Each structure stands twice: as structure tokens, then as C-alpha cells.
## 1
Amino acid sequence: MADDDNIIVATAERIFADLADAQTVIHNKDGSWKAPLWHALSEAGLPLSWVPDDCDGSGASLADGFAVLNAAGRAALAAPLAETMLAGWLLAQAGLASPPDAMTVAPARPRDRIILNDDGTLSGIARGVPFAVDAKHIAAVATGAHGVSVALVDASACRISAGLSIADDPRDTVTLDRVRPLAIKPAPAGFDLTSLLLMGGVARSLQIAGALETLLDISVGYANERVAFEKKIGKFQAVQHNLARLAGEAAAALAAASSAADAIANAAQFDDAIFLEAVSAKIRSSEAAEKAAAIAHQVHGAIGFTSEHVLHRFTLRALAWRDDFGNESHWAVELGRQVAARGADELWPLVASR
Amino acid sequence: MTAALRFDPIRLPPKCEALRKEVRTFLADEIAAGTFDPHKPQREDNDAPEFSRRVGARGWIGMTWPKQYGGHERSFLERYVVTEEMRVANAPTRRFFVADRQSGPVLLKYAPEHVKMDILPRICRGEVCFAIGMSEPNSGSDLFAAKTRATKTDGGWLINGSKIWTTSAHMADYMIAIFRTSPPTQENRRHGLTQFLVDMKTPGITVNPIRQITGQSEFNEVVFTDTFVPDDHMLGERDGAWKQATSELAYERSGPERFLETYYVLTELVRAVGRDPDTRAAEGIGRLVAQLHAMRRMSVSVAGMLQTGKEPVVEASIVKDIGTVWEQQLPHRVRDLAAFVDADPSNHATLDEQLAFATKLAPKLTIQGGTTEVLRGIIARGLGLR
């Protein structure tokens, strides 16, 4: 999604380049880049892109927000931007206003549940919650006796046990033990935990696609510079063909993720068609991440395996993002079951409907 | 970015869905009438002249061409819908598909007016079949090694030599071929080939069928002995065929036929596992459907770019690379996933038959119309590596 003419994306890209450039992040191991970055993102209104004006947000379109996430992927951004955007979007679904500061969403895995107790408190364990330790608030989907609710929770009221993704970004276990929410409202009809996971999955697909675009870019650049056996390694057919495959994987991830984002941006409901689009994007971009990361490392050789080189910021994040909001195995099983339940002769009509 | 890959999320416009319904109804009627069996892609004879005429009568051949030549001035996206529905139904499109996809557009661009007026309306009516004469016994992927000669004579050219692996030559009315009119130059080894339109009824043409590992004989050796081709059947620039080949490829490489060639085994697998599959089968099917959906979205995106007059050569090559590798692997994945299916369901014989055929067919999918290696070379060039 090369949005040269999109001012929101251009703003985001400038902030990423100025304050969270991969080389800068690697050199500042103390994390001193984080506060100025978040300040700039907040000043630009990006974390609350998907919160309407009347809920104290920036009121950007879904499409613009998705384009920002794709750009965040291209920068391998390690800040809770996607998470805060998702939280703001989730709260707005139920008409809840968003507080300032960083947020995240829970549950972030398909098998976890947060329960709304009869006394109005929330209980449950959510694992693998991205950036929970950095979040001031958590937007949660809770299930109660009377259906699904959306709740705003003070993160300090939860027990948060810190963990890390393979890219060393926070992936925490959040335990709610009869936590009283700051605000809670019923979710709109048809909205449930799956809706949040699909939206989160599409966000991650766009981030993965973005990371793969950059992997292609820096791998081609390296192959055109590095000389071995008396020529640039990009002149070797074996290397060219690997890079062509990397381009194909980046293209597949980008096409699937862009399609799903476009589908959600233009849909009223999370129906079967949106399900196909969203889970296909997550499955295909995750599969692409595996192949693309392997090729990018292969092209770079040993230098790309060092912590000083920028490559791992893109490869490891693309791989780590596969695990959030349902991994590709989970969604493949769900999609396969849905396809089988519809019956063999309904498969093509479903695919052709998109 | 070194490589600006672009796959915009193009959607088929609403009028395409009405057309899709028409095509499905038409195909259901043809199946009911016994024209073809959609469950038997392995049938020996894919030539169905009457079916071709009925498709032509519906206005589904030459859909995007100007009306003055019998075309219908419809969009590439409408053509896309017709192509994918025909492919998924395993309809016998062989007689008209090459002319519709490739030969017609070449004639539109390079043939003299009276030739266009003569042939294009007949293509649109489903009356004529085309073959493409590219490969020769010692020149396959390396197109510019072609040696079959066209020698100037009074009022035309005399052709001597042979083409090989020529699909449908045994039933074709015409061939569009490249022949050597001059030797290559020191500076440009691609120089010296010229594109011609050959009437297959011309004396001096022998077509020898070649049996394939599937048991079918879809391709042929075509031998030319002093075959006369008139001057007005030269297409485009003398010695300059190399300039004319590239734009054609975007059309040829990105269509739904580049990933749906073995689709039927996936449908039959879903039928075989039933409505409540185990986790293994469900995951396998889910991944395949996700991959299929992603490819189709890429392919539709390229069709949308073609509609707006772009020539997305790299994107089209990516679609064919990923699509043909996928359809080649599909029978093997389906075989894996069917391993634990009870032999009970009534379609199991169908699935076995289809798998046997698709497995034998699979190797050709990454060879025909530009090998995987050639495609990856084109992609690498697009990335700035060559």
C-alpha cells in the first residue's frame, strides 16, 4: 500500500523515520527513544485514529488507520500503536470514550475468556497480551450471562506478569480477579471476541506485509552491494530466484492483507465473507513471514544474524506477529471447518464472492 | 523502495455478478444436456466445436474487443468472471481459449485491417481455433534461439523448419508463430525474428501428435516444408518480434487459469471429508482455501490494472509463479489430507481418479507459458537485480 498521497500515512512515516529508525533503536538499548516517539505519535493523534471525534479521538477512516499500520510494519515499529488503535476502535464499538495514553486489548488469544460476573466485576486470564506492561488502560471483550460487553479497565487493577515475544516486545499475561471496570457497555449485536480477533488479525497481517516489503527492499539492496566470487551476489541466479520468491511472498501478504482491510473498511458486519478475508490474510501473511524471513537471512549471510544489524528487527517481528490474535494454525482449522460445514459445492461461490 | 509492488484491492463491479449468474446457468444447462462432465477433467477429447459456438453466441469470446471486429467492448473484469467460471466447471474451452486470450489481441494490434475483419469476427463466434508457434526442438524457454526460417519470395514468405510442443495444432485453423527472417546481430541476439499468421490449411504443413504422460495428445510437432505465407500475414515489425512479445505476457500470465488448473481436487476433498472433518483435515483445507483466496485477490488486482491500461509485467509474473507452483502442489497436498478419509463416501472413486490425473498433469503447469525459472528472472529484473 504505497500511499504517497495520504497525509496521515506520510505523517506517521516521518515520525517513524525520525524517532524509531531501526538503526537508532538498536543503538539506544536503554529504550530512550520510546518516550519521544510516543509523545510525537500522540501529538499527531495517531494512537486514537479509529476513535470518533465525539469519543475524544481523531476520527480517521478505517482505511487510513490500516494504511498507518502497514507503514508501522514497514518500520518494524515496536510501540503499542496498533494496540492502542485497536483498543480505541473496540471501545468505540460500544460507544465508550477513549482515555489518553497507551492502551491494549484483551483477550488476545482465541482460547482465553474474560467473564463478566453477576456483581459487575471482571475475571479471567488473558495470555500473550501485547504491550500490557506499557498500557495505562486495557479494552476488554467480556462475556456474561446477558451476552457480550466491552469494558474499559485500569491496567493497574490487573495482575500483569511480564513476558516477551521472540522480537523482545512485551507479550504479557493479564489476570483479572474481580476487577471493577472503569466503564462497561453491551457490545453491538453480532459483535463478539471473534470480531476483535479478526480485526487484530488484519492489523497484524498489514504489519507483517509491511515488514516483508522492507525485508525485500533491504535484501535487494544488500544483494546489489555485496561482492563475493568477484561479482555482486545479486548477479547469481540462485540469489535472484530466492529474491524473486521473497517478492512473491511479500506480494501475497500485501495483497491478502490489503484485501481484508478493504473488506472490513467497507463492511457493516463481521459476516462469512469478512471471516474468509480476515483469516486468509492472517494465514497467508504468516506463511509468507516464515518463507520471507528465511530468504532475507539467507541473502544476508552471517552479518544479518548479528544483533547490530537491522535485519532481525524486521524478520523477528514478522515472525512474532504471527502469534497474536490467533495464529495461522488456529484460523486454518476454523476456516476449514466452516468450509466443510458449508459443503463442497459452496466453496467456489464463497471464494468468488470476494 | 527498490521494488514498488502494487496489488490494490480491486473488487469486481456489481454487473459482474449478474454475468456470473448467467455463466453458471449456461454451464449448468450444458452439463445437464451432456456436453461435458465437470467431474471428469481427464476426458480425452477437449474439443467441443458446438459448445464453442454457443459460448460465442452468448458474447463471451472477444469480450473486450471493439464491436467493429465482432467484439463486445466489455471490461477485463467481466472477461475474468467468464474465464474463472468456465475453468472451475472444467468446461471444454480449448477450441477458443487461446484465440480469446492471446491470438486475438495480437491480431488486433498488428494485423492489417482486412485480416482483422476476416478473422476476428469468426473468433468471436467461436468458429476458429488458434495455436501458438514458439518452441522448437532446440529452442524452448530460450525463444530467441528459434531457427525455423521465413525466406522472402514473390508476394510472401516460404517457411521451413519445425515447431514443437504446439498445443492444439492438430485442431487449429491458424497459428501465430515466430520465424527467423534475419540472423541475430552482434549487439542484439533477439533481433531477426518476425511474427506471422499462418493458415493451417496451407500446403506444406504436417502436424504430428505427441503423446503426453497423462495419456492425452494435446501438443504436437508441426513441420513446415516450403509453406507459403502471404505478405499481409506478417504481424508487426520485420525482425522485431522481440519488441512485441512482452505486453502479451501480462495477459497470458495472470489469469485465473494460472491457479485453477487442478482446483477440482480441492472441491472433491471437501466433499470426501464431509461436514465435520477432523482437525488435521480442517487445518489443511483452511490453509489451502486461504492460499487460494490470496492468489485470486492478486490475480483480480492485476486484471484491474490491465483494465486501466497498465502493463503490470512483474506483478503478472508473480501471480503465475505463485499460482502455478500452488496448483502443481495441490494434488499432493490433497493426497496427504485424504489419507485418513474413510473409503466409504460415494465420491471416493471420483477423488482417486481426479488425483491420479492431476498428479500426472502437475509437472507441466510450471513449464507451459513461461517456466518458473524464466518468470523468476523477469521478477528479478523488475527488482533491479539484472
Note: Chain B has eleven helices and eight strands.
## 2
Amino acid sequence: MELLSFGDTGWGDELFFATLMTIAVSIAAMAIGFVFALIFTPLKLSKNKTLNVIGNCYTTIIRGVPELLVIYLLFFGGTGAVMYVASIFGYDGYIEINAFITGALAIGIISGAYSTEVFRGAILSIDKGQFEASQVLGIKKSIQFYKVILPQMLRLSIPNLSNVWQITLKDTSLISVTGLVEIMRQSYIAAGSTRDPLFFYSVAAALYLVLTFFSMKIINKLEVRFNKGY
Amino acid sequence: MISIFPSLLNGTVITLKLLISSMFFGLLIGLFFAILRINNNPLINKFAYGYSYFFRGTPLLVQLYLIYYGLANIEFLRNSFLWVVIREPYWCAIIAFSLNTGAYTSEILRSAFQTIKEGYIEAAQSLGVSKKITFYKIQIPIAIKQSLPAYGNEIILMLKGTSLASVITIMDLMGEARKVNVLTFKPFEAFITAGIIYLFLTFIIHNIVKNLEKKYGFQT
């Protein structure tokens, strides 16, 4: 237990901040994922063939390749791409993109693909009558979406979004390979310097379990809240 | 471009080996724990639930590190015959992947067991079929048929999971892609080619499962 004490002698405070980092990356990735989902869900539902193909390509490709691959591609390729763009504008120095941004973006792209599928399923399962009724009442398309469809879609997608959140939370452990100090990376460092990998990886596992446990509690509360009228 | 193909194909073979062996052991583990989960004894039940909760609640990377770096820390394991197994990254990866997919498989099979209609079991009972034979000849085949779609997803998730083997020095498809990237400084070529191979594998698995579903699928 001494190893976990706070301060200079133990790893408690380091692991605590690493846990906060994991939470921060997960939330950022989830938010980026929502942005992607809000762009690609309409594409997947669109009647236009081309838009449809674009939407399908996104979800199929991202869900078909390993998460690690997306992370490596952004991490190694992203720097090169940014430097290439910068060189066009006459800047030839080395540019390093922040590991947090790369990581959150990579995991966000992945969780976006899952969120897209969840939103698509939720919209498809909304009763046809809701669309027709709002049309009959003469409600504008944009207001129909924000005031009629979106609230129902969110309610229907909460159970599946909780799965996406769990996947996202666990995927953030993969960002450790790029050097961002979150739970996994911190445990790796601690295990390396104390030569006690068994202990520190068990702590990491416990931290992840605690995170998933409490997020489930919170999501269940949200579910009850959103289901109040039903 | 062409020159990177042979090494990537070598990696693909390792990836497939990892996938097939962990799916095989994972199915056995999953079946075992699914049977424990439908057991009425609360203690056995809790144990099986704890197993699946742990492996589904923690990232695969943690499990892999725990087995690869962690187990080597235990003195008596190092002195036992098991050391031959756990000092090899390849076997550690298979152990971690099997335990992980076993947890998910046990959940898939459990829900399949629980949705079997009472009528089948009652029919078997009234025909005088023994409990054991009912289980092996009726419940297990139906459960396997019902869980085919979910299991197909699990195979694809595991295919993606095997890419983690590259972080413990195994030269699977992902490992080879990383090596190509380091040697040539061409991340896009290396990773996109690997991505296409992964997509191709996903596509094949998807189609095999779809055909199996058509053949043995089960409409209730």
C-alpha cells in the first residue's frame, strides 16, 4: 500500500491525475464522436445514393479496422500531414501535435462510428406517426428535428450509448502507446520503475472497473430521468 | 509499395493463428462459464458473473499487460512448469485473448440459454429424455444457433483485438505495419495497406457467419 501513497514517495497522486486524464480523454472523445455522428447519421439515412455510400463507408471502415491502427495512422501520419501543409506555407520546422488532441480525435472517430449506428437505429425506431403528425401540424423541418425527433432519439439511444461510452473508456487505454499519460501509461511507468508490474496493472484494472461501475450508475440514473414520461 | 506485401502477409498469418486459437479456447471457456451462469447455486453464479464483469470491464490492454508482465512477477509460477508457457509473448497473447473473448462469449451464450423456449425442454421431459441428453442434444445446439449473429460480431471484435499483440513484441499484421513505418517513414502506406487487409478479413468473416446463419439459422 505504501506504493500508492500520495506525495513524492508513492504513486497515488500520479495515478489519481492519470485517472482524471483518462476521464478527460474519454469525455473529449465522446463529444468528438457525437459531432461525427451528427454529421454521418443524416448521411446514412439520406435517400441520396452518394451520401449514403459516404456514410456507410465511414461506419464500415472504422468498425472493420483495429482501433490501434486508427491511432497509429493519426499519430504518425498526422504529424507528417500537418508538417506537409505547413511546408506549403513556408514553415519547415518540426511540428508536434499534442498527444491529447491526437488521442481524443482518434478515439472520437472510432466512437463516432458506433454512435452513428446507435442514432440511426434510434431514429428508425421512432414511430412514423410522429413525423407525420408534426408535418400535419405544419411544423418546420428544422424545428421538427430539434423539438420532436431529437428528444425521442436521445431517450431511445441512451441504453446503447452507455455501451458506446464503455467501449470508448476502454479504448482510451490504447492511447498510452502514443505517450499520453493516462491510467495505462502511468501504470507502465510505475511498473517499470518499481519492478512490480503485477501490482500496478492490477491497480490499473481496478481503476477501470471503478470507472465503468460509476459510469453505469450515472447512466442508469439518466435513463430513469429520461424515461419519466413513459 | 509491392515490397512491403510479403512481410505484411507473414503478419496476416500470425494474426489469423492468434485469432483462431483464441477463438477456439475462448469458446470452450465461454461455454463453461455460461453453464456456471445458469447454475442455481448463488456462489457459482457470482463467481462466473465476477469473471465476466472483470474481463468486460477492463481494457484488453490491461489484461494483456497483467498476464505478460504481471504473471512473471509471481515467484512460484516462474519456478513451475508453466514458466515455459508464460515467458512466450505468443502464448501470453493467446491466454489474454481467450480469457477476454471467453467472458463475452459466456454472456452471449447465457442470454441464448435463457431465451430457449420452455416448451422444448418440457417436450423433451415428457418424451422421457434424460436431463443430460436434453442439455447436450437440445439446449446446447439451440443456444449455439441463436447466438450466431452476436458471436459473429465477437469474432470481428477479436480480430481487431489481436492487433494489441503487437505491443508485446509479436509480429502480427499490426506489428509488421509498425515495422514498415519505422523502416520507411511512410505511415500512410504501411497502415492503410494493413487496414485494407484487416477490412478484407472482416469482410470474409462477416460473409462466413452470414452463410452459416442462412444454413443453420434459427427463426423462433
Note: Residues 5-37 of chain B form the longest helix (33 residues).
